[in-house]
Design brief:
This protein is α+β, with helices and mostly antiparallel strands. It is 18% helix and 33% strand. It has 12 helices and 40 strands.
Length: 700
């Protein structure tokens, strides 16, 4: 039985372009949960042998959708090429990072002209020739996909441990390179999904192995020169929803093992020079309490939300790690997001009224606080690469919607900010031609939602085309940062807006909590209300708004095209989490158990089942007109499995009442992030922007 019917020829065996979209078969399938029976005629698109995808019907359908995508984009190929060359022209091809000292070496990475991937270098602080540590281009040669994972040089500088993924499945293989000889050692660690931490005088590496469900539930030790079968497991997490990670303390004398899910955490400590020794539990897990830990001498520093939603910073004696004393009180105004310990001071990071704050603090006086001042009213700033414990100049990153990415050194003694590098745009960029605004829009429940906007100063007055972006999940705040590719929309008269909706933690932890679990629909309503508010404020008009989001932000796209389809002139949904209910009902999928604290558990809770069903984009597709849609997927994506967007598109094709464009592009050799390589991924952005510009009528 054919997977799909199309009046166009089978493009997998013919060069003839299809003349109509593929129509996926409907196959009877239903299930009953909590007394509610749901039919799912496109269930068959989930290959039952996943993560192997070899069902010929499934592959054929995806190929036909890809052929339809190519056929529909073909008339716009010149625009895609123009946009790609524009975007590429804004990238300095032979770019490099600012070297940073770590021990006896200065480390940096470079791109060579025309190359997709980085080269990693170092040279002695005392002087000498650069040494090539790793060439990602060589590792990626002949592969459709490549991503470098961990990159860790041993403390003595002799060895480099690194990991790589060559198919997008996010299962990395770790190798060790002798930097004196340039040879790879025989040590090979497959199926990793973690950092690589050197321990015990550079004789051991701590890592986490991904289990069959793509979860890291362990910490293992690999002794250099031994077979991986002899590796020792030193930590095991039994809760299937928790993930495990490990890293060194500030003074590199403790291995800090953290385990947790989206709302609960627990930390253990073990000496870095004796990692098989007895471990110290900091404080037993308590549902809803998150904390992370660092160590300075005999004192623990604990960042926790145990008594304030916006977190406090506490200390405890190493001998009594569970006895926490407040160092910095939690605040309704200041959201404490992170801290970092250095020899003579420590740094706190957070947000005040949604804007980044970086503060130096004295160990001996909690009231001695030095905030680092930045020049613009809206910006993104934070600590960057500061690898040493004894730092007298802090490396900082800075950007805004009109200021390109910048690297600064901050002199701790004088307070001077030294600009080391600002992102160079070879084709030219004049910041004075652009303006950025930050406004608030009232949501339907009275909540004030911040919006960041950038546009050209010469954009014609009155309503015009506008692109609206958001994410809105997991407490991730979308920063109002700089983007060179975005200029291809803005320079054609579009405004570009970021909606800082609930579900992110832009305005503090409560902002996040108000967009998860049983308050999840606030996220979707905020986005719609921001769009309507921008119309009311004269920035744009109904049908002249394009929107985009990926992953959980793709779920957002799926919801808003169901609820308010007439607002949007074009929508791009990247690897969208749209089959929410089915995914959260499948405990055997890699991410599901760990996701229940974020979305709810519809297996155990009838209320969670009903609430999820009420907004799940796939389940809520109805017979109505939908805006033009571009949907992407990755065949090897372990986060949002390929069948979610595939099923959604199939159902939309069969149900919607309009003739608007609906495209599905599946990367057959990539995962959640799309194609790898700086130019290959840029080309996909050019395709998306060509879709938006043509659908909005900005460009013919």
């Amino acid at each position: 039985m054919a997977a799909a019917q199309s009046s166009g020829a089978d493009t997998s065996v013919s060069e003839t372009a299809p003349t109509s979209p593929p129509v996926a078969e409907r196959r009877d399938y239903s299930f009953t949960t909590h007394g509610i029976t749901l039919s799912d005629p496109y269930h068959w698109l989930k290959d039952q042998s996943y993560p192997v995808v070899d069902d010929e019907d499934v592959l054929e359908y995806l190929k036909q959708e890809n052929a339809w995508f190519e056929a529909q984009m073909a008339p716009h190929q010149a625009l895609v090429d123009t946009l790609f060359e524009e975007m590429k022209g804004r990238i300095k091809e032979d770019d490099s990072t600012v070297p940073q000292k770590d021990g006896d070496w200065l480390y940096w990475s470079e791109f060579e002209e025309g190359k997709e991937y980085r080269l990693h270098y170092r040279k002695p602080v005392a002087g000498g020739e650069p040494q090539l540590l790793l060439d990602e281009n060589q590792l990626a040669e002949g592969k459709d996909y490549f991503r470098l994972g961990a990159f860790s040089v041993s403390k003595d500088g002799r060895y480099l441990a690194y990991s790589a993924d060559d198919n997008g499945s996010e299962r990395f293989t770790a190798r060790v390179k002798d930097l004196e000889t340039g040879e790879l050692l025989d040590d090979v660690i497959p199926e990793t999904l973690s950092g690589l931490t050197w321990l015990a005088g550079d004789t051991m590496i701590a890592y986490g192995k991904a289990n069959e469900n793509w979860r890291v539930d362990n910490v293992r030790l690999h002794t250099l020169g031994t077979d991986v079968s002899e590796d020792v497991e030193i930590f095991r997490e039994e809760d299937e929803g928790f993930r495990v990670g490990a890293g060194l303390s500030a003074q590199e004398d403790w291995l800090v093992i953290g385990t947790g899910d989206n709302e609960t955490s627990e930390v253990w400590l073990v000496p870095a020079d004796n990692p098989t020794a007895e471990q110290t539990l900091v404080k037993a897990r308590q549902k809803g309490v998150e904390y992370d830990v660092d160590v300075r001498d005999d004192t623990l520093f604990i960042h926790t939300n145990d008594d304030h939603i916006n977190f406090r910073l506490a200390t405890a004696p190493l001998a009594k790690p569970g006895e926490w004393t407040t160092l910095i009180e939690g605040s309704d105004d200041f959201y404490l997001t992170d801290f970092e310990l250095f020899k003579d001071f420590y740094v706190t990071e957070g947000r005040l009224a949604g804007l980044d704050q970086v503060q130096l603090r004295a160990y001996d006086d909690a009231g001695d606080v030095t905030p680092i001042a930045f020049p613009e009213a809206s910006f993104v700033a934070g600590l960057s690469n500061n690898p040493e414990y004894d730092m007298q100049k802090l490396r900082l990153s800075y950007q805004s919607m009109v200021t390109p990415g910048s690297v600064y050194d901050y002199d701790v003694k004088t307070g001077a900010l030294e600009l080391l590098k600002q992102q160079e745009i070879p084709s030219g960029y004049d910041a004075t031609q652009y303006k950025t605004e930050r406004l608030t829009i009232t949501a339907r429940d009275g909540t004030q939602v911040p919006v960041s906007i950038v546009m050209r100063k010469d954009r014609p007055a009155g309503a015009g085309p506008l692109h609206l972006y958001a994410y809105g999940a997991y407490g991730y705040a979308v920063p109002p940062g700089f983007s060179t590719s975005r200029l291809s929309l803005v320079d054609r008269g579009m405004a570009y807006a970021i909606a800082h909706i609930r579900g992110g933690d832009d305005l503090g932890r409560r902002w996040y909590l108000q967009g998860k679990l049983n308050e999840r629909t606030n996220t979707f309503e905020d986005f719609v209300d921001v769009a309507k508010g921008l119309i009311d404020a004269g920035y744009t008009s109904k049908g002249q708004i394009s929107a985009s989001g990926g992953s959980a932000g793709g779920e957002l796209m799926g919801v808003v095209v169901n609820t308010d389809p007439d607002l949007w002139g074009a929508v791009a949904a990247h690897v969208p989490f749209v089959d929410v209910l089915n995914t959260m009902l499948d405990k055997d999928l890699p991410l599901t158990p760990g996701e229940w604290p974020e979305w709810g558990n519809p297996i155990e809770s009838k209320q969670a089942f009903a609430y999820m069903l009420s907004y799940s984009p796939y389940d809520q597709v109805v017979a109505q007109d939908y805006p033009p849609l571009l949907v992407t997927a990755g065949l090897n994506d372990p986060r949002v499995t390929y069948w979610e967007p595939a099923k959604w598109v199939a159902k939309l094709r069969a149900t919607k009442t309009d003739n608007n464009t609906l495209l599905l592009k599946t990367n057959m050799g990539a995962g959640h992030g799309g194609k790898s390589g700086r130019f290959a991924s840029l080309y996909e952005t050019a395709e998306e922007f060509a879709f938006i510009l043509t659908q909005l009528g900005v460009v013919d």
